[in-house]
Amino acid sequence: MQGELLRVIQEGEVRRVGGSALVKVNARVISATNRDLGAEVAAGRMRQDLVYRLNVVSLRVPPLRERGDDIIALTLHHAARHAALLGRAEPHISEEAMDRIRNYSWPGNVRELENALARAVAMSQHGVILPGDLPALAAGATPANLSALHGDWPTLEELQRRYIERVLEHTGHNKTSAASILGIDRRTIQRLASRETDEDDKS
Questions:
Q1: Residue 24: what are its φ and ψ, rounded to 5°?
Q2: What is the sign of the dihedral through the CA atoms of 121, 127, 133 and 139?
Q3: Residues 122 and 155 in one domain
Q4: Range of the domain at 85
Q5: CATH number for the domain including 171?
Q6: Are residues 124 and 70 part of one domain?
């Protein structure tokens, strides 16, 4: 596939699926990666000649953890946006909560930040986001919080169902708000809810 892409960029021609004739194209290619292309070339997973063709103008977007005050601006923006979705006033973020946000590594970058703030806005009380509203960012926190599962050991599907039920209860079964907190679309919420209803009817 890399060879085919290289040919298209070099020759400006493509062959349609199922076709035999070459078709001239005039296009600009914008590509993105989160990999080290030098390392990929050295490992034999990326063609060096293709890298040369793609790397005409290079722009590095640093990860969120390296973006300093951008984290603050993005935090305020997403907190205000999710508050508006829930029909709430823009929340105040306590200094301790903001410190936790600044000091977290954000491996999931802006998407992870947005989902964390959607949850924090929904869970916050009296219009203030506190460190306790950001439990996933706590020092030593684990994604599954295994200590809370001691003696239970539900399946992943059961864990998902319980969490969705809890978020739906918090939002008064408002599926749009719940979908925003969970980082999924409303149709997924409806599909999961329908499946749970069908399973209850069978039992």
A1: -70, 140
A2: positive
A3: no
A4: 64-137
A5: 1.10.10.60
A6: yes
Give the global pTM: 0.54
Q: Is residue 59 part of a domain?
A: no
According to DSSP, the β-strands at 128-129 and 92-93 are parallel
User: Can you tell me the distance from the alpha carbon of 162 to that of 24, in angstroms, rounded to the nearest whole number?
Assistant: 54
pLDDT in tens, 132-185: 888 767 543 444 343 444 445 567 677 677 778 777 777 778 888 778 777 777
User: Into how many domains does the chain fold?
Assistant: 3
CATH number of the CATH domain containing 93 = 1.10.8.60
Q: Are residues 127 and 69 in the same domain?
A: yes
Pairing of strands 13-15, 128-129: unpaired
